[in-house]
Design a protein that fits this description.
With 562 residues, the protein is an alpha/beta fold. The two termini are 31 Å apart. It has helices at 3-22, 51-59, 63-76, 102-115, 145-163, 179-195, 210-223, 232-253, 265-269, 272-282, 318-330, 347-357, 394-401, 403-410, 423-427, 434-456, 468-471, 477-487, 489-499, 503-522, 530-554; strands spanning 47-49, 85-91, 95-100, 129-133, 167-174, 260-263, 286-289, 292-295, 306-309, 335-341, 365-370, 373-377, 380-382, 419-422. Strand 4 (129-133), helix 5 (145-163) and strand 5 (167-174) form a beta-alpha-beta unit. The protein has a five-stranded parallel beta sheet, sandwiched between helices. Strands 1-3-2 form a three-stranded antiparallel beta sheet. Strands 7-8-9 form a three-stranded antiparallel beta sheet.
Length: 562
């Protein structure tokens, strides 16, 4: 709902409660500020507050009785409140529900038309610096379908939080060292030697994708046989360079650009990893046993004691992750958001325990775990394995579906729900396909504008400086309901920024498209009534603005024709 309207109603509630206290009808010494939410069921009004339930204990009265006292005062104040609501009712167990007035509905429509591409944008998160880490795939192979979900979730969240006023940094964390990179280098070396007709076998644990052969082929083309005795470092550097370039290219196709690429290896070269061990030992929170270094993670909610340095001298995955989070916190971010796959669920508590043990505020870290993706085609699941090359790359998915469908489908379910990605549905050019359905709503609005211009000869439809009496012609129940839904967009942006539930944008846009489709079923936009036609053109222009802004947050185009 429009922020100004919500603030007006909240102030009205606060003022009414204050006056009731002065009159002795309420006795609470301290009353919290009223907050407003949307009722789950629309028959319970447009906005609701639970203030009566929050103070019922101090009032020594049942919540419904307190709600009755406040509701009566609010109904008595309707004229003084600027007609933002036409009535107030109560509902069990003590909710106070507001029904917006018609004049308030017109205000909602005017706000959309006035703010246009900035509608929904706010200073909600102003002054807060947020770092969002996502994708973070190591350069051992191309991005696959499995990487796509967090890529989209992270980017949509970053766009939404930026729209809500936060200063957002998109960060990609990767590691170009360790055993997996040695395996990668050796895989390329073997393929290179095979191209030279050398009799060498690919190791069992090698990477077997076609991309390995492509890298080897390029090396042969550039160097001939000169690398037959070359060190693995040569093959590692070549593979890393080619693969990372491929990853960047794929992300670019997805419309995703990172501000920071952070290499885990720098945590070692700068000594930050070993500094963590030293500090834990100084605090007597780490000890040596069986040649390894153990961290007392259990003291900080991390379960049992954990090995952070193996007996071989190599750190476990927990150690650089702890150092990395400390490094980000030292950069001055107010909030760190990590987006990981569900397989990280066991890692997170140990890392948070390490951060807490070293005296840092883990409340500044929010970890989002998304469930995995199952790709289906013709009703059958496509199985994926990066090592064995039995996978579908993100590029292949983009080739088949295009960016819009890929992004919409990845973001259309709660991240804690498993995602069944139906290739056949995503390809359909029909109303069964949800992204097509939403985009078609926008395209149809453009078509109506074109039809009106052709019919009337008007070059530009007047959407600015519209007279209030024109908007007051929008009195059909479907029109009122649709405008109220448009009014929910700004609050939706704030809610998504707080909860990180990006799928709610998809749900909202689908709801807008559905309401618009139902409206078309019962009402004609262009008719012989020129004044009513103009009013309805203005209304669907507001719908168009909201669809454009919402699709923009999803990183999806708003087509003019389909």
């Amino acid at each position: 709902m429009n922020k100004q309207i919500r603030q007006n109603i909240c102030r009205t509630v606060d003022q009414a409660v204050l006056e009731l206290k002065q009159q002795g009808k309420l006795v609470s010494k301290e009353v919290p500020a009223a907050g407003l939410e949307y009722p789950k069921n629309e028959r319970f009004g447009d906005l609701s507050t639970n203030i009566a339930m929050r103070i019922a204990g101090a009032e020594h009265k049942p919540p419904e009785k307190v709600a009755e006292i406040i509701a009566k005062a609010l109904n008595d104040r309707i004229a003084a409140a600027g007609d933002d609501y036409e009535k107030v009712e109560i509902a069990r167990p003590g909710f106070i529900n507001f029904y917006l007035s018609f004049s308030c509905v017109i205000k909602l429509l005017e706000a959309v038309l006035k703010e246009k591409e900035k509608y929904g944008q706010s200073d909600f998160g102003a002054g807060q610096r947020v770092d969002i880490e996502f994708v973070s795939a190591n350069p051992t192979g191309p991005l696959t379908v499995g990487h796509g979900r967090q890529a989209v979730i992270g980017d949509v969240l970053a766009r939404t939080m930026s729209f809500a006023g936060y200063e957002v940094t998109r960060e990609y964390y990767y590691n170009d060292a360790g055993n997996q990179m040695r395996v990668l280098a050796d895989s390329v070396r073997v393929r290179y030697l095979q191209l030279l007709d050398e009799k060498v076998e690919l190791p069992e644990d090698a990477y077997q994708g076609e991309y390995i052969i492509d890298i080897a082929r390029k090396l042969r083309l550039e160097h001939g046989e000169a690398l037959k005795e070359a060190d693995l470092k040569v093959f590692k550097k070549a593979a890393e360079s080619e693969i990372f370039e491929d990853i960047r290219s794929t992300l670019d196709r997805m419309g995703i650009v990172f501000d920071v690429y952070f290499n885990e290896h720098t945590l070692y070269t700068t000594g930050k990893v070993w500094k963590v061990v030293e500090e834990l030992k100084q605090k007597e929170l780490a000890y040596e046993k069986d040649g390894a270094v153990w961290f007392k993670a259990g003291l900080f909610g991390g379960g049992d004691d954990r090995v952070i340095v193996k007996s071989s001298g190599e750190p476990t995955y927990r150690l650089p992750d702890i150092a990395y989070h400390l490094e980000k916190l030292k950069r001055g971010f107010d909030l760190l958001i990590d987006i990981f796959g569900a397989d990280h669920h066991a890692t997170v508590p140990d890392v948070m325990a390490g951060v807490k043990a070293l005296g840092y505020d883990t409340e500044k870290i929010k970890v989002l775990l998304h469930q995995f993706v199952t790709l289906t085609k013709d009703g059958k699941q496509l199985k994926m394995s990066t090592r064995k090359a039995t996978y579908v790359t993100l590029d292949e998915l983009l080739d088949e579906l295009g960016k819009d469908s890929v992004r919409y489908f990845y973001n259309m379910r709660r991240m804690n729900s498993h995602l069944d990605f139906d290739l056949e549905l995503a390809k359909k050019q029909s109303m069964d396909n949800p992204v097509y359905y939403v985009q078609y709503a926008h395209a149809r609005i453009c078509s109506i504008f074109k039809k009106y211009r052709e019919k009337t000869g008007v070059k530009e439809i007047e959407f600015d400086h519209v007279k209030a009496e024109t908007l007051r012609l929008l009195k059909e129940p479907e029109e009122i309901a649709l405008i109220k839904t448009l009014g929910k967009f700004p609050k939706l942006i704030e809610d998504v920024a707080l909860t990180c539930e990006t799928h709610r944008i998809n749900d909202y846009l689908y709801d807008v498209a559905t309401q618009l489709q139902r409206y078309y079923t019962d009402h004609r936009v262009i008719s012989d009534d020129s004044a009513l036609t103009h009013a309805r053109l203005i209304m669907i222009r507001a719908v168009q603005i909201v669809l454009q802004n919402g699709l923009g947050l999803l990183g999806i185009t708003a087509p003019e024709s389909m």
